[in-house]
Amino acid sequence: MNRSVIELLQSHRSIRKFTDQPIDNALLLQLIRAGQSAATSSNLQGVSVIRIRNPQTREAMAELASGQPYVASAAEFLVFCADLNRSAVCCEKEGQQLADGMTEHFMIATIDVALFAQNVVVAAESEGLGICYIGGIRNNPAKVSELINLPQNVYPVFGLCLGYPDQNPELKPRLPVDMVLMEEEYQPVDEQLLAEYDETMRDYYHQRTKGKLDRVWSQDMSALLGKESRPHMKAFLASKGFKMR
For residue 55, which of 39, 121, 185, 245 sits 20 to 30 Å off, Cα-Cα? Predict the structure, then answer.
């Protein structure tokens, strides 16, 4: 019996180990069509997906993503790109010029990518596939762009591994709904709920690592946001035409 959509969404996990079973090409095309059916601001459709099948390119991508081996071993690896190049061509066709570097254009293309990719992910998981987003390609976006020949006004947002799962990891606990859903206006952080969630995450990491990892969400966020993160991205985006004005 098929799971409901809500059950499917609530069972999402990142998969980092895949079987050797290939994904039927017809199914992959259906997944991409599902992505195309996502909402898109002003019908921009500002997404291009680069399918990487060459083993050497896969290995290079895995290395550029800080050595994540499943980039090379997954049945499929896709690079999702925010694409204003097609729109620039349309502007030229109509005797106009793409307004260079508008922050709003950058935002709607990037949001389009996220919506498109999540549709692909949900469709893939409904067919028994596992996925893993690869934000690590932004560690060196210039080399990634060179590797897949991205033109101006296109940048790689993230990669996506797809394949049949060869592992069954535990669900990672999320924040309590009461910390996320707010009534009428923004609410201060509930310190008690945060402390309880930290303990839930501590238990999760203990079980996942057989006691080797003692860590909580607050520590994760401090490590993530308490330091600079990919400071090269602003200059890289400007070099590709996304100047944020």
Answer: 121
Residue 48 in any domain: the answer is yes
Q: In which domain, by residue range, is 103 found?
A: 5-169+228-239
Based on the domain organization, do 146 and 60 belong to the same domain?
yes
Tell me how far apart the alpha carbons of residues 157 and 70 are, in angstroms, rounded to a whole number.
18
In a domain, 222, yes or no: no
**Residue 232: predicted pLDDT:** 97
Q: Which of 58, 84, 63 is nearest to 148 (CA)?
A: 58
Full-model pTM: 0.95
- In one-letter notation, the amino acid at residue 121 is V
Cβ–Cβ under 8 Å, residues 168 and 18: no
CA 86 to chain CA centroid, nearest Å? 22
202 in the same domain as 145: no
**Which residue, among 149, 136, 156, 145, has the nearest Cα to 63 in the 3D structure?**
136
Query: Looking at the 3D structure of the chain, how many domains does it have?
Result: 2
* 81 within domain boundaries: yes
183 shares a domain with 156: no
pLDDT at 155: 98
> Which amino acid, residue 103?
T
Coil, strand or helix: which one is 171? coil
Residues of the chain with pLDDT under 70: 1-3
Distance between CA atoms of residues 223 and 221, nearest Å: 5
